[in-house]
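Minutes, project check-in
Item: structure for the 93-residue chain
Input as provided by the requester:
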Amino acid sequence: MLRGFPFPPVWDDEVAPVTDKLLGRLHPQHSRLITARFDGVLAGRVVLNRDPYRLVGHWGTVNHLQTHPDFRGRGVGSALMCEVRKMVSRRVV
C-alpha cells in the first residue's frame, strides 16, 4: 500500500496508472514536475503549467501540490511553492 493517499487507502496498482496519466500530460515546453526529497525519500511534489499563448504566457497554474504525511509540518509545501515562484520569475517553464 502507498502512503500519502489518506482517503481511502490505495494500492500501487491503483496509483501507477493515474501517475502515468499525470506524467503523460506534462508538456516538455510548458510543464514542470517539481519534487522535494529528504534522504532519497519523496517528501512532496507539485506540477507547474504555463500557458503556451504569448499574451498570457506569464500566467502559471499550480496543480497537484502534495506532501507525504510523514513530512507535513516541515515546510515542504512552502519550499515547493518557493521553487515554483523562482521558476516562474526566471521563465523556466
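Outcome recorded: Residues 23 and 33 are 8 Å apart (CA to CA).
No further action items on this chain.
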